[in-house]
Amino acid sequence: MALYPFILLQDPRDRANPRLLNHERIHLRQQAEMLVLPFYLCYLLHYAVNLVRWKTHDHAYRQICFEREAYTHDQDLTYLGRRSPWAFWHYLGF
Prior knowledge:
With 94 residues, the chain is mostly helical. The chain contains five helices and two strands.
């Protein structure tokens, strides 16, 4: 879990998981772009709208624009080096 400026890991072995760390670093970049608090508000709002729309936690969570960007690029360890600012907007699609 990414809580700016930290990545919190449940299992210490996750420190060796580059894909997970990259996923969380993408969230840190998103949080920094949105000045942290607005990120969390938008994240929760997007989740709530998705939950009403999709009816299940998993689908609602996976359709949050921030998660869509992170899951799409988490295995590309060079993504953050070329990511354009506010790239999550491309994943908003309601």
